[in-house]
Amino acid sequence: MRIFIKAIFLLLIFNTFAFAACDVKAKFGEKKDVFEKKEIAGRAFPSEYPGLEIYPILANDICPNEKLDDIAIEYRFLYDELIAINFIALNDDRNIPSEKLTLMNYVKKTYGDFDTTNNPKAYNDFHVFEKSNWFVVYQRLPGEGGIMDEQMYLSTPAFDEKLGRFYADKEMEMLENSQ
After folding, report:
1. pTM for the full model?
2. How many domains does the chain have?
3. CB burial of residue 94 (10 Å; 0-12, 13-18, 19+)
4. pLDDT digit string (tens) for the chain, length 179 residues
C-alpha cells in the first residue's frame, strides 16, 4: 500500500512537471470525442491523410499567462487518439515570433536550458528533452522563403512510433500509386 501511495505521488509530480507552465487540457492517448467535449478547439483541419486529424488553437487561448503571442497549438489525433501536441511559431517573412524568441524562451523556462550560443536569434538547430515516458523536441530551422520553421513537438515514444509508421505507410502508398 505504501508503494502504491508513493507511485501516485510521483505520478502527480510528473504530470505537474510535464506541463507545468501550460495546461494543454488534454492527455496523450485521450480519445477525440473526449477532447471535443472539452470545447478546447474548433474543427479539425482538413486532413491530407485519412485517419490523422489536427485541431489548431492559438496558444494564448490555452495558456493566457504564458504570453505565447503568435504561437499556435496543434493537437494531433491518429485514429481518434491524441498522439502528439505541437506548439508552432506563426512566422511570416518577418519571423516576428522567432525574432522575439517567444517559443524558445518558453521551452527553456518549461523544460530546461540548452545551448543556443551567445546569439539565440542565430540558433538553427534542434534539441531533445527526454524523460522516461515522454519527450519534447524543440526545433528552429530556416524554411522555405526565409520563413523560420520553429516548433516544439511533445509525444511519447510509443505514440511517436505509431505516427512514424503511419507516415511511412502513407509514403509507401504514394510511391506505389505513382508507379
Report:
1. 0.83
2. 1
3. exposed
4. 444 333 333 333 334 334 446 889 999 999 999 998 888 888 888 888 899 999 999 999 999 999 999 999 999 999 999 999 999 999 999 999 999 999 999 999 999 999 998 999 999 999 999 988 999 999 999 999 999 999 999 999 999 999 999 999 999 998 898 88
